[in-house]
Amino acid sequence: MAVESSLDVQLIAASQFAVPPGVDWVPDAGATDAEAIVEFAGRACYETFDRPNPHTATNKAYLHHIIDVGHDALLEHATATVYIRGLSRAAGNELLRHRNFSFSQLSQRFVHEGSSEVVLPALIAEDEELRRIFLRAADETRFIYDELLRALEENLAGEPNSLLRRKKARQAARAVLPNATETRFVVTGNYRAWRQFIAARASEHADVEIRSLAVTCLELLRDNAPTLFDDFLISELSDGTKMATSPYVS
Amino acid sequence: MAVESSLDVQLIAASQFAVPPGVDWVPDAGATDAEAIVEFAGRACYETFDRPNPHTATNKAYLHHIIDVGHDALLEHATATVYIRGLSRAAGNELLRHRNFSFSQLSQRFVHEGSSEVVLPALIAEDEELRRIFLRAADETRFIYDELLRALEENLAGEPNSLLRRKKARQAARAVLPNATETRFVVTGNYRAWRQFIAARASEHADVEIRSLAVTCLELLRDNAPTLFDDFLISELSDGTKMATSPYVS
Amino acid sequence: MAVESSLDVQLIAASQFAVPPGVDWVPDAGATDAEAIVEFAGRACYETFDRPNPHTATNKAYLHHIIDVGHDALLEHATATVYIRGLSRAAGNELLRHRNFSFSQLSQRFVHEGSSEVVLPALIAEDEELRRIFLRAADETRFIYDELLRALEENLAGEPNSLLRRKKARQAARAVLPNATETRFVVTGNYRAWRQFIAARASEHADVEIRSLAVTCLELLRDNAPTLFDDFLISELSDGTKMATSPYVS
Amino acid sequence: MAVESSLDVQLIAASQFAVPPGVDWVPDAGATDAEAIVEFAGRACYETFDRPNPHTATNKAYLHHIIDVGHDALLEHATATVYIRGLSRAAGNELLRHRNFSFSQLSQRFVHEGSSEVVLPALIAEDEELRRIFLRAADETRFIYDELLRALEENLAGEPNSLLRRKKARQAARAVLPNATETRFVVTGNYRAWRQFIAARASEHADVEIRSLAVTCLELLRDNAPTLFDDFLISELSDGTKMATSPYVS
């Protein structure tokens, strides 16, 4: 039976910072590690560890200035890694377009035994009839997948390596699996890349599923580096979905 | 009715070269533009336009030396663009992992009307029974796609913008389309990126469909820059498919 | 004697385009190859080779639309390579920050025999007295370079490989050479990268030498793809130097 | 007076890891955070959190396998940031070629007042006579720099903005500063990029200063992720300098 999977994003790694010996500077008590790294890198460019400009003496003011003048390169020094589950292969294909990220994706050579995990588009999930049609189609596709897998393994009986036989059979049989099939990702990016992703995909014009991913990442990363994202405003569209925009991105 | 689509790759753009004024050097008559650019860039690093080393005086010898010593950065100065049709969405997802390429991909907001174009895995295409099962499944999926599309457009009747209504409906309905659905790409890469792609995907261990793409690209680009690929040897595996390897890649 | 070198930029390679078989589309007669490639890639995403939208039927209108809506990824399919001479090492260091470019740089293991080629900052070149001071300093530095080189080669007399001996001596002696030392580059980039470079470095706030390089590249590439740059306006600052800006870049 | 500066590299940030809820896996007690992230990402690709293969059940064995089969993409999920002081501008120019890194560099608009910090090549530093010649040259250059700066500021007296006047003067005057001038960098990279950098620059054929930087980074990062670097062997060359190589890099 087809099992519905829903989006789940967890922060699993992020940069931890320590001031090096020989630098007479202590980050603001309230600054997170990511925020302190970005300020450190900025001050290293001009040796302004003594905070000569009172207007940018606090971490918050310094980072706002960086975003304001567009010195985004400084944001590359802090990174965050998330683990994404419950994403459709279709949205995964869009996510892969963001080449500044590093990706590890669940292989389709691995498939859940006995059931298919699928991610339903919201417009289908919320209509009882369409949901029924969709899940039945997923079940049938899964049935055909199993049938193809069995037949292909038989056809490949001449292949003595059982691991290779199974791999070849799966590679062919997966052709029938739908776009809705669940995929999973480990995604690592620096904060400049995360801002670019959110700017591009949390916008009103993005596909609804990847938009939901982008807004979720924004909420998650905002905990880790509030000041690096406080220019983004999350709002609700007329269809109840969320979007986010910032005056600093186009 | 499901229509079978098969791989088609065409070279649509490549670098054209001209020696700049003030450089006293003429490329070998036999060198292609891509080959001449790479030699030019190499000679520019050491001002050796007078070919002081007789062992690398010809274009062929010069390029072989570059590949031998691993100065691959020089290969980045010549680029080639291909147009790929008849690739499955599954293989397209693998292709997107090659972040050094530039991609434009056929949107799934565009779908052929009235028929579904699918790319059959070789192991399925060559078995009469499995082919029949697969094409029937593709037809049924397409039928459900059309059904979902119609119902979704009805549900979205409140959306006054007909373009947006259709886009939203398609974005949701495409969730049912299979991995085998045909996709198309414009892919641009420099010759270093092309060599990396071919090294990774023409190998015996790669998935059979993307391996076929990699070998096809090798054959195509070899016409455009023979010396930059003549270390690759194309051979046939026991299952009749092709692979390629070079002693210069791992 | 120190020899003054001045900026010289030549286009040495660019993408040449051909419509692939099976695509029923002919680019506008007036479109350059670079312009046609970008339009082709855009139309390939939505299979709009039949130009369904009259507002974007011409190449010019299509490209303006792309730049307007920010589909810059399409600009990655056309590339251009330039050969830069007469750039200072200081400006070269700034150029290297543009990581989307591919670079081959004149090695400092190669040094002009008997004379030093230097790039004078405009503010120094235009003041007779400062120019004299600067050139005399360059001559002295060159004298010390030669002295160090000779002494180092003597110290390395135990090294039997004369090539390696000379290389080691040059690597150490070059430490005394000034920022003004001339360097040369082969630079390859796609049109998206070129636009980003020009946007960042042709701006009023950029260093005067790299600004001059950026404006020169703009003038050169504009010949090769007028429509991809016609949003940039070149103007003159009060000090007589040029700058360029576009409403489409920040 | 010219002040000698010597290489100093400090680790200032690195990825910290936490297993996400819902994943039944605990990393080996001995694994560092970087090592655990890489294993996590690998196991996420095949859902092998239950360690089905006894040969790769330990973190050490798993990472060795990854390096052995070349799944270097997994190494992109852990990052490390270093702060580099005491590097010459010449070596800095070479460092910038590693485009997979993120850089923030000390601006030459900032210059130590009253003294010039220079990085002496080892071959010069270890010869009393050459050292004297070199430091005297650095002093003279610094004297001319100050002279140019003063004259330029006078020439720019018409510029009402004193900050801009000083910036313009410094940009021109710095043309006389030598390659040996000290620069500083904040450099962030993932472990794949760090391995590539070390492989390229810790090799016998690299320039002695950047080789020293590469070996220092290897020693530093090895503390943070021993298993990701234990294929590298550090050895001493006949001239007393260090180099490092691994059988897994070419």
TrEMBL record, chains A, B, C, D:
It catalyses: dUMP + (6R)-5,10-methylene-5,6,7,8-tetrahydrofolate + NADPH + H(+) = dTMP + (6S)-5,6,7,8-tetrahydrofolate + NADP(+). This is Flavin-dependent thymidylate synthase. The lineage of its organism: Bacteria, Bacillati, Actinomycetota, Actinomycetes, Mycobacteriales. Its cofactor is FAD. The active site is at 201 (involved in ionization of n3 of dump, leading to its activation). It is an enzyme of class 2 (transferase). It comes from Corynebacterium qintianiae. Pathway: Pyrimidine metabolism; dTTP biosynthesis. One of its GO terms (biological process) is dTMP biosynthetic process. Its EC number is 2.1.1.148. Belongs to the thymidylate synthase ThyX family. PANTHER family: FLAVIN-DEPENDENT THYMIDYLATE SYNTHASE (PTHR34934:SF1).
